[in-house]
């Protein structure tokens, strides 16, 4: 009996629990297995492969024998709600492989090129300044999440898509439910349906009254017969949801991390060199790795990797935070060093499914970090670090509130 | 240094444009890689190697 238990306990739990004293670090059991991939137990009792090595992650995420098809038996769902709603989920960039994926992704890529994002830089700067003005004019302490972190990426994605920002209370509520780890299947479906209905109406309006935005592009494709209205709605929904939580969490959590590392914050605050700012953003992306529940995959064939055999039908979870803390790729990974070469990080994942909005995220972060600490040089936490509530329960890591004063 | 890009593999992440803007660009219609200079001067070799290293789709190869 005792022996059985020992054998059982050798399989670690995934995603595991972070050490409260060191909330930026990935859970210790992910980093201490001594091998780049191993089996761990997830919420439903199954034991998929967990890939933590940086090099192994690159191999897995660019291997055509590895699929994102969540309808295959054995797929390692992140949550029960995701498992229960799988039949309701149509084909999107997240769950399509090969030619289907290329077709969908190419319809969505045009608005997100580096050049187009660079053209948004002045608007991002202006929105950031206005939000900081408003925060400074308001009461102290302020919550950075509601004052800046969430409104900025929301404003930008609304601007890009052509969604009225005045509706943001409505769609933020539903976008939050969509990425909440413990949302029930009903809550999750209801949120998607509400968002879908809203976006379909907007698309219908843009069929007859097009403007210069992404929804109008999608509406034009519907008009030309290249895209069905429900598919256009889905593309819009993916962009709206993905554009919200991710950058917002990076802004808040990055600020929390920098306030704990004042010498690093000072470097960012005082530099005049955009290349230094850009590099600092890459290091913060590496260090914090917001998508912390892992990229989910399933093996289509047997795959030999790092002395192990992943069998056809085995679930695979690629832990991006663990890969970004692999000392082989990033020496002394627990040190936030804004001058290190970190561009090969996996914060936006790797392979064909690498983040579509990464250039927008980069520019938002470059502008925000640089502007906030320069405009508010005395910025500090208004509560003890121990009082911050970290989002262990969400698909994107962060803190719920960041009370700050100055 | 000679660069070859595979448009079929490209996923329009834009990483190459960030790493080596003098050598790579993206098509306006779909973000797919455009090679501006297939024989870049040696001073850009470091940037180009980084572009190849950070391309998530492994769509850039370098022939020395």
Form type of chain B: globular
Radius of gyration of chain B, in Å, reads 10 Å
The number of domains of chain B is 1
In the sheet with the most strands of chain B, the strands line up as 1-4
Annotated CATH topology of chain B: Alpha-Beta Plaits
Count up the helices of chain B: 2
Q: In this structure, how is the largest beta sheet of chain A organized?
A: 5 strands, mixed
Run of helices and strands of chain A? HHEEHEHHHEHHHHHHHHEEEEHHEE
InterPro entries (chain B): 3Fe4S_ferredoxin, 4Fe4S_Fe-S-bd, Fe-S_cluster_ET
Protein name (chain B): Ferredoxin
Pfam families (chain B): Fer4_13
Cofactor (chain B): [3Fe-4S] cluster
What does this structure look like?
The complex is a heterodimer of chains A (406) and B (64). With 406 residues, chain A is α+β, with helices and mostly antiparallel strands. Helices cover 50% and strands 7% of the residues of chain A. Chain A has 16 helices and 10 strands. In chain A, the strands form 3 sheets. In chain A, strands 1-2-8-5-3 form a 5-stranded mixed sheet. In chain A, strand 6 and strand 7 form a beta hairpin. In chain A, helix 10 packs across helix 12, helix 11 runs antiparallel to helix 12 and helix 13 crosses helix 16. Chain A is globular, with a radius of gyration of 21 Å. The N terminus of chain A is likely disordered. Chain B has one domain: Alpha-Beta Plaits (2-Layer Sandwich), CATH 3.30.70. The model of chain B has no long low-confidence stretch (mean pLDDT 95). In chain B, 42% of the residues are buried. By secondary structure, chain B is α+β, with helices and mostly antiparallel strands. In chain B, the strands form 2 sheets. In chain B, strands 1-4 form a two-stranded antiparallel sheet. In chain B, strands 2-3 form a two-stranded antiparallel ribbon. Chain B is globular.
């Amino acid at each position: 009996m005792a022996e059985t238990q020992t054998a059982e306990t050798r399989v670690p739990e995934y995603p595991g629990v972070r050490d409260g004293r060191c909330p930026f670090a990935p859970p210790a059991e992910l980093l201490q297995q001594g091998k780049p991939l191993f089996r761990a137990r997830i919420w439903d009792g199954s034991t998929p492969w967990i890939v933590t090595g940086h090099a192994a992650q690159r191999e897995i995420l660019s291997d055509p024998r590895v699929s994102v098809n969540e309808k295959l038996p054995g797929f390692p769902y992140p949550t029960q709600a995701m498992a229960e709603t799988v039949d309701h989920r149509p084909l999107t960039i997240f769950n399509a492989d090969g030619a289907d994926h290329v077709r969908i992704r190419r319809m969505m890529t045009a608005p997100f090129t580096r050049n187009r994002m660079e053209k948004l830089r002045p608007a991002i700067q202006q929105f950031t300044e206005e939000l900081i003005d408003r925060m400074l004019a308001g009461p102290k302490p302020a919550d950075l999440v509601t004052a800046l972190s969430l409104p900025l990426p929301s404003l930008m994605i609304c601007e890009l898509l052509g969604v009225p920002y005045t509706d943001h209370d409505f769609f933020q509520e539903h976008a939050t439910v969509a990425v909440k780890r413990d949302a029930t299947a009903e809550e999750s479906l209801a949120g998607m349906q509400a968002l879908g209905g809203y976006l379909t109406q907007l698309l219908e309006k843009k069929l007859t009254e097009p403007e210069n935005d992404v929804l109008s592009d999608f509406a034009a494709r519907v008009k030309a017969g290249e895209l069905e209205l429900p598919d256009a709605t889905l593309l819009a929904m993916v962009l709206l949801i993905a554009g919200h939580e991710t950058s917002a969490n990076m802004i808040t959590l990055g600020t929390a991390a920098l306030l704990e590392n004042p010498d690093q914050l000072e470097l960012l605050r005082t530099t005049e060199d955009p290349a230094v700012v850009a590099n600092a953003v890459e290091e913060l992306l590496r260090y914090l790795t917001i998508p912390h529940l892992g990229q989910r995959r399933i093996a289509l064939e047997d795959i030999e990797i790092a002395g192990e055999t992943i069998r056809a039908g085995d679930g695979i979870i690629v832990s991006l935070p663990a890969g970004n803390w692999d000392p082989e790729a990033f020496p002394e990974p627990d040190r936030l060093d804004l001058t290190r070469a970190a561009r090969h990080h996996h914060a936006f994942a790797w392979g064909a499914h690498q983040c579509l909005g990464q250039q927008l995220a980069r520019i938002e972060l470059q502008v925000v970090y640089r502007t906030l600490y320069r405009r508010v040089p005395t910025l500090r936490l208004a509560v003890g670090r121990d009082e911050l509530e970290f989002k262990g329960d969400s698909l994107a890591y962060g803190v719920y509130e960041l009370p700050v004063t100055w | 240094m000679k660069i070859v890009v595979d448009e079929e593999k490209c996923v329009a992440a834009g990483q190459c444009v960030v790493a080596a803007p003098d050598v790579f660009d993206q098509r306006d219609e779909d973000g797919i890689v455009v090679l501006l200079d297939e024989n870049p001067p040696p001073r850009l070799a470091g940037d180009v190697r980084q572009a190849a290293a950070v391309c998530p789709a492994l769509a850039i190869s370098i022939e020395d």
